[in-house]
Design goal:
- The protein is built from ten helices and 13 strands.
- It is of the alpha/beta class.
- The protein folds into two domains: 118 residues, NIF3 (NGG1p interacting factor 3)-like (Udp-n-acetylmuramoylalanyl-d-glutamate--2,6- Diaminopimelate Ligase, Chain: A, domain 1); 117 residues, Udp-n-acetylmuramoylalanyl-d-glutamate--2,6- Diaminopimelate Ligase, Chain: A, domain 1 (3-Layer(aba) Sandwich).
- The strands form three sheets. It has a six-stranded mixed sheet. Strands 2-6-5-4-13 form a five-stranded mixed sheet, sandwiched between helices.
- The longest helix has 14 residues.
């Protein structure tokens, strides 16, 4: 099978996602995190870079793993024990890892938020929810009851959302920030939405939602962030004529 240069794919991802324009969380390390020998014949996509997803990538015959959550969130050294085993697994099997966190959340077409808004049929979605100087979410219009939106969200993500019914019975001005933005729901309320969709949040946010008069839907951190890596990998597949596969490894969170 013909291979595409890894450097060409990385260059395209950089031009598309513009990671240099984001101030991300420490450890995000957006971009190429692990090289391979320089060629790519198959792409795998996963939400998280873990031993389990790397092993599934190898089983799928892929030599590039695209992830949303990369390898370096915790301490990155020393490379001993399980960290050594993970590095050895990648190097021995010629698997490169490319990670994109906030840039992939925020991308207007391929991003987690854009793709989830599309799946929910949210109209006229605009940038929303400024995080570290950059709008990473989207907001737009719907006209559904809470139950109707919960059903639509479950169909889009494959998981039943947890509903915090702090606002009105109908959801009209809806903000979407995939992942773990529940603790920052006041930011969403301050930007004028009556409904906020995100992945997860702490227990005390139930009372906060009531306080703010805000409907909140927790649809799962993992479940809301499968969209971006799929969309990015599919676009790379079309551009570079490479097969791709999604590595599903749900966390339940």
């Amino acid at each position: 099978m013909a291979k595409v240069k890894l450097a060409n794919i990385v260059t395209h991802c950089t031009r598309t996602l513009k990671p240099e324009s984001f101030e991300d969380w420490p450890g995000a390390a957006n971009g190429l995190q692990v090289e391979n020998r320089g060629g790519v014949s198959r792409i795998a996509a996963a939400v998280d870079a873990t031993p389990a997803t790397v092993k599934k990538t190898i089983s799928a015959g892929a030599d590039l793993l695209i992830v949303h959550h990369g390898l370096f969130w915790g301490a990155t050294h020393p490379w001993t024990g399980n960290r050594y085993k993970l590095l050895r697994l990648l190097l021995d099997n010629n698997v490169a890892v490319y990670s994109s966190h906030l840039p992939l959340d925020a991308h207007p077409r391929l991003g987690n938020n854009a793709q989830l808004c599309k799946a929910l049929d949210i109209k006229a979605a605009k940038p929303f929810f400024v995080e570290r100087g950059q709008a990473i979410g989207l907001r737009g219009a719907l006209n559904l009851t809470r139950a109707q939106l919960a059903n639509r969200l479950a169909k889009a993500t494959g998981t039943e959302p947890t509903v915090l019914p702090g606002g009105s019975a109908r959801c009209r001005r809806v903000g979407v920030v995939t992942g773990g933005a529940g603790a920052e729901m006041k930011t969403a309320a301050d930007e004028g939405v009556d409904t906020f969709i995100t992945g997860e949040g702490p227990h005390w946010t139930f009372a906060l939602a009531e306080d703010l008069g805000l409907n909140v839907f927790y649809a799962g951190h993992y479940a809301t962030e499968t969209f971006g890596v799929k969309a990015l990998s599919e676009s790379l597949s079309k551009k570079f004529k490479l097969p791709w596969t999604f590595i599903d490894h749900p966390t339940g969170l």
